[in-house]
Amino acid sequence: MKVLIVAPDRDLLDSLRGLLILCGMEADAAHDGVMAIEKSRAASFGAALVDAKTPLIRAGDLIKELGASGIPAILMTEDAEARGEGILKYPFAPEELLAAIEKTAGEKGDAKDE
Amino acid sequence: MNKVRRKLVVSAMAALLILLTALLALINVINFALVAEDADRITETIAEGGGEFRDMMKNGEEPFPGGRAGPMGPDSPETPFTARFFTVRFDKNGKAETVAHNISAFTEDEAKEIAGKLVGEKRTGWVMTTYRFRVYKKSGETYVTVIDQGRELTPSYRILTVSVIGEAVVLILALAFLSAFSRKLIRPVEEADRKQKKFIGEAEAAIKVPLTVIGADVEIIERTSGPTDRTASIRRQVVRMAEITKRLRTMSLIEGESTPFDLTAAVKDAAKKKREEFSERGVSLDLDIAEGVTIKEGGEAVSRAAEELFRNAAKFAKSRASATLKRDGERVTLTVTNDADLPDGPVEQAFDRFVRLPNADGVEGDGIGLCSVRDAVREAGGRVSAVCSAGEFTVRATF
Fold first, then answer.
1. Counting CB atoms within 10 angstroms of each CB, which of A33, B173, B179, B347 has the fewest?
2. Number of domains, chain A
């Protein structure tokens, strides 16, 4: 599965990308919303990780846009009050990240089957 | 009006009420005491004269030898003419005889009756509100002198009335002033507090992404080169830092919550979140959580405090821990207990910042967990205590 990671923090992009590759996934990185949209149109992704502070396009709008393209997205946020599905609150452990991607991609697969 | 303003207004008004009341009470007590003293000096003079004013001028004596002759006070030469009084003498058989009767409010018989009731009293005192009496003995006979102080007391009662009304007016004006200006007065304090909370909140948020990066990098290192003691240590530090950010958040949230809070749900949620920590250490956790318990204030600060209590119990318990949540009338009590090797007695120092108890040796921690619990519980209007008894460490939060 290929995962698109969108965040302004380059170290975060690098670490998450490296981790996902080690876990057997493919990963691509974008440091702003516009780049994310371009990459989502150029390749097929099974899921996306979107940082709440992604520049150029609001994270919520980006998630909707990716969803419309068939890419389920997980919001990564510092907001401890955030509630709901598809949300990862910083700081999250690698296991939490992998579980969230698996769940989100799995739900997309279920939706496709239906 | 927010909490800080309300506290300022209530404290200031309470202080003003206490000080004003004390001051005016003192002034009025002294005032009435001086009136009594003046009356006692006059009755003393009457007593020296055998129950009446001696005609001192007759023998060329000074009207009031040793005293101050002036237009005012009991030493005034006018006093024998202005004093309204009567004196009744009682012989050894108790028979009453009028010695002096210079008063129109009572007949001689009425005066004797009044004196008869006072004959057994102590030396001086008040009777019928505005009359001062003196009981004394001369040549084996008992004398009772009663003097009317109504005129002298009238200004005193006026002062008392003005004091009460004046105090009420001052308090109302002070309340109006404080209500109008308290916001401006506390603005610098609120601003400083807001900035501090903002800083804490921003610091807490700023740490989160780097912690995630460190966690991911350690995972990468371990997957490529294998886990080492160093990577294990880095993982532990990441967990510690994550816990500290949660407590920083608790501190930044304090003083913001003011809605009724479902404590039952918060405690159950906290127990659920920390259950794995108990399992990992092989510690049993018994819960007795009453349903539907709410407290007036709480919010996330109290939720975090509940989590911290469970985390603390999971960390330091030898083999067992328990938690109860009960409501008893207006009082709500959350109790978390774990077995521990600690001496019996209160352990209030457990709530001090950076203090760690003796059983914490060898256990990781930074000494601010229970401190944040205390702050959160106090802010929710509660109090917290810790005690060791028979090998059990108990933290009790009461709301």
1. B173
2. 1
User: Which of A15, A22, A31, A76 is the mutation pick for testing B, counting most B CBs within 10 A?
Assistant: A15
3-state helix, strand, coil in chain A (%, to 5): 45, 20, 35
Whole-model pTM: value is 0.48
pLDDT in single tens digits along all 399 residues of chain B: 577 788 889 999 999 999 999 999 999 999 999 999 999 999 998 998 888 887 654 555 555 555 555 556 777 777 888 889 999 999 888 899 998 899 999 999 999 999 999 988 878 999 898 999 999 998 889 999 999 999 889 999 999 999 999 999 999 999 999 988 888 888 888 788 778 877 887 787 788 899 999 999 999 999 999 999 889 989 988 888 888 887 777 766 655 545 567 888 888 888 888 888 888 888 899 999 988 888 876 666 788 888 889 988 888 888 999 999 998 877 889 999 999 888 888 888 887 766 677 777 666 666 667 877 888 888 778 889 998 988 899 999 988
Residue with tokens 């371009």: A38
Please report, for the domain that includes residue A18, its CATH number: 3.40.50.2300
Binning chain B into helix, strand and coil, the percentages to the nearest 5 are 55, 20, 25
Domains of chain B: 3-153 (no CATH), 259-398 (3.30.565.10)
Give the pairing of strands A26-30 and B284-289. Answer: unpaired
The ipTM value here is 0.85
Range of the domain at A49: 2-113
